[in-house]
Design goal:
The complex is a heterodimer of chains A (187) and B (136).
Chain A (H helix, E strand, L loop, with lengths): L8 H12 L6 H15 L2 H23 L3 H8 L3 H8 L9 H10 L5 E5 L7 H15 L5 E2 L14 E3 L5 E5 L4 E9 L1
Antiparallel strand pairs in A: 1-5, 2-3, 3-4, 4-5
Chain B lengths: L2 E5 L12 E7 L4 H12 L1 H15 L10 E3 L9 E4 L5 E8 L6 E9 L5 H18 L1
Parallel strand pairs in B: 2-6
Antiparallel strand pairs in B: 1-2, 3-4, 4-5, 5-6
Helix pairs in contact in B: 1-2
Classes of the chains: A alpha+beta (187), B alpha+beta (136).
């Protein structure tokens, strides 16, 4: 590849200079980043903000699917536009409660499932929530199904398998080992 | 220039249900990881906010909340985006690569609001995207 066929020589020079500003990260600096990330993972306040943001995204997607404006939703729901907007953008000042989340979700033809995972689990609670029903249906008459077979293509390999079990407890398994489990509660 | 993709500590398979989030490096230098480490120590609120957005974006086909992700307003840049630490200064410019089964969200250029010209940073991101896509 000749880069100057894609961008100008000047732009290429700028990009080289840009990377040149940053020294190579040492092993100790990489470890430092890993440690910082682990600290963040242990911080419940961080997870509060992340889950609020995920909830808001799911609601914005539902709103877009309905091709409805925030004003129309507010009117239909009997709430102020400001309140709806704050919920949909997960503003810090809005205290999202299970009640407000469930009510908003219902207005947008969605349901809330609270999924509790072990902190060490590799399971993504949002995925399990969204795909729970598809997964449940796919379990009927079979023991294992790949996520891709139920309409979800994982971005990572190896494909994680869904395994059904008794009493509403489902287990996620990699081909040869269990990597986590969760229980399902109706909100 | 040769490019590499580096994992971002704290963003893992649990989050990456749609996109694998990676930081672009060239000849061992990775501006995004370097800046994240700097923010972690010197602007911890910015670091938290950016990590939140990257983890959020990893699981969304498209982030709709413009508090978190905005597309460049310059049509010439094409599809390049910025992850925002809302109401703070940290930004990370990125693009998506969905040409293969494994889909990537590639973080390219860190930026701090108010320092430098944002539109030129978007342009830089677009140039790096073009080079990356042509070379891989």
């Amino acid at each position: 590849m000749n880069p100057t066929n894609i961008i100008s020589r000047d732009a290429l020079g700028e990009l080289s200079a840009f990377f040149g500003q940053f020294p190579e990260l040492t092993d100790s600096e990489r470890n430092d980043l890993e440690l910082g990330a682990r600290e963040l993972e242990k911080d419940p306040d961080f997870h509060v903000e992340l889950q609020k943001a995920k909830f808001a995204e799911a609601m914005l997607e539902a709103l877009a699917e309905r091709q409805e404006s925030k004003s129309d939703l507010a009117k239909r729901w009997g709430r102020s536009r400001q309140y709806v907007s704050k919920l949909l953008h997960a503003e810090r000042r809005v205290n999202l409660t299970v009640k407000s989340m469930v009510e908003l979700a219902f207005q947008l033809d969605r349901q809330i499932e609270i999924v509790v995972t072990r902190t060490s689990s590799l399971v993504n609670s949002q995925v399990t929530t969204i795909y729970w029903e598809e997964a449940r249906r796919s379990w009927e008459g079979t023991n294992f199904r790949r996520r891709s077979e139920i309409g979800f293509e994982p971005a990572f390999e190896p494909a994680v398998l869904l395994r059904p079990s008794d009493s509403g407890i489902a287990k996620y398994c990699e081909p040869s080992e269990q990597v986590g489990e969760y229980e399902r509660f109706a909100a | 220039m040769t490019f590499g993709l580096e994992k971002i500590p704290g963003v893992d398979a649990k989050d990456e249900t749609v996109w694998m989030v990676r930081a672009m490096s060239s000849d061992g230098r990775c501006p995004v990881l370097s800046k994240l480490r700097e923010w972690m120590h010197e602007r911890p609120q910015d670091y938290r906010a950016i990590m939140k957005v990257l983890r959020l974006a990893a699981g969304q086909k498209q982030v709709r909340n413009q508090k978190h992700v905005k597309r460049s307003e310059n049509p010439a840049d094409g599809k390049v985006y910025e992850a925002l630490a809302y109401s703070l200064v940290a930004r990370v410019m990125f693009f998506y690569d969905d040409r293969r089964t494994s889909k990537y969200l590639i973080c390219v250029v860190p930026y701090e609001k108010g320092r430098g010209d944002q539109s030129s940073v978007f342009r830089q991101c677009a140039n790096l995207r073009d080079l990356y896509l042509a070379s891989s």
